[in-house]
């Protein structure tokens, strides 16, 4: 399994919508297939499912990288730590591998310093091995890192796929040693309609989704695709074996449309 500088497996399994017994079953397929990284969030209602899937897999907790994200409602003074303890309880574990701020507080309703300082405290208490953020802009990353001093922001999770390559932000993160996790890494299955991607996929005997994931891995990113279907969970995983040429990568770079799917009115002013 390919890992980055923080020991984060580049291939992860997203758990949005993977609820209940069907959700646990999908996660079990993922773990049997070789995924060793599960991405959940307080808001997804899938933390308990992740806990069950890990227990049932028979794998050691230490062999699976687990991320959760703090919900917007838990950013206020005194709220973050109890919410994270509840997440640990849901996950049946003592420590997260990575804890992210899911979204910057809309309209700065809770000042950034309030939740970044609580995140640092969670790290100091050993509740999480790494800390990071999600949906943060360059300006917000700068502000957060200045508050944290020596404690590194290890990760920024953002929407990123061939149709939204987020180059300015990704370049900034690379320069600062902040790893990038791509959400919607397979653009929810629409990439087969992009001729350049379809052509590269056909040439490699691969799926368009595998091409997107291989592109993201080649860039050094982490990707967390999800599916409810065992065949797709397994097929997506095989992207870890697909090697694209420099020419393929240059071609994929031409399909960027800045096409953002997750774009709430209360979201930040994107880079
Ligand atoms: N930080 C954030 O704010 C944020 C926001 C959104 C998502 N996320 C995280 O990112 C993860 C992935 O995002 P996402 O689930 O929205 O998008 P995605 O992984 O790009 O796409 C998942 C969708 O594509 C379909 N799919 C999966 N494999 C496929 C394949 N090989 N061919 C065709 N279709 C395929 C799935 O449907 P089937 O189930 O029918 O296969 C599912 O509806 C989430 O699970 C979550 O963990 C984070």
Q: Which structural class do the helices and strands define? A: alpha/beta
- Helix % is 25-40%
Task: Please work out how many helical segments DSSP would assign.
Answer: 10
Order of helices and strands: EHEHEHEHEHEHEHHEHH
Question: How would you sum up this structure, described in words?
Answer:
The structure is a single chain. With 271 residues, the protein is α/β, with parallel strands linked by helices. 40% of the residues lie in helices and 14% in strands. The chain is built from ten helices and eight strands. The protein has helices at 20-33, 47-57, 80-91, 112-124, 138-148, 167-176, 195-204, 208-218, 230-237, 246-253; strands at 13-14, 37-39, 65-70, 96-101, 128-134, 153-159, 179-183, 222-223. Strands 1-2-3-4-5-6-7-8 form an eight-stranded parallel beta sheet, covered by helices on one side. It is globular, with a radius of gyration of 18 Å. The model has no long low-confidence stretch (mean pLDDT 97). Bound molecules: NADP nicotinamide-adenine-dinucleotide phosphate. NADP nicotinamide-adenine-dinucleotide phosphate binds next to α9.
């Amino acid at each position: 399994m390919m890992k980055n500088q923080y020991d984060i497996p580049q291939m992860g399994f997203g758990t949005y919508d993977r609820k209940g017994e069907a959700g646990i079953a999908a996660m079990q397929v993922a773990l049997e297939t070789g995924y060793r990284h599960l991405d959940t969030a307080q808001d997804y209602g899938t933390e308990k499912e992740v806990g069950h899937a890990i227990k049932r897999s028979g794998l050691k907790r230490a062999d699976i990288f687990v991320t959760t994200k703090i919900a917007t409602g838990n950013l206020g003074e005194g709220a973050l730590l109890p919410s994270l303890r509840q997440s640990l309880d849901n996950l049946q574990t003592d420590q997260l591998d990575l804890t992210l701020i899911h979204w910057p507080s809309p309209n700065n309703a809770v000042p950034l310093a309030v939740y970044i300082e609580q995140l640092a405290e969670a790290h100091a208490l050993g509740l999480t091995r790494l800390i990071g953020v999600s949906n943060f802009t360059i300006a917000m990353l700068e502000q957060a890192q200045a508050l944290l001093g020596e404690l590194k922001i290890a990760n920024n999770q953002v929407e990123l796929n061939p149709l939204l390559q987020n180059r300015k932000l990704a370049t900034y993160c690379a320069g600062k040693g902040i790893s990038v996790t791509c959400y919607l890494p397979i653009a929810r299955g629409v990439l087969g309609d992009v001729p350049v991607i379809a052509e590269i996929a056909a040439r490699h005997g691969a799926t368009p989704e595998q091409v997107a994931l291989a592109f993201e891995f080649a860039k050094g990113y982490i990707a967390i695709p999800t599916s409810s279907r065992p065949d797709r969970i397994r097929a997506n995983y095989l992207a870890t074996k697909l090697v694209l040429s420099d020419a393929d990568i240059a071609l994929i770079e031409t399909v960027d449309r800045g096409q953002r799917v997750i774009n709430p009115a209360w979201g930040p002013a994107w880079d």
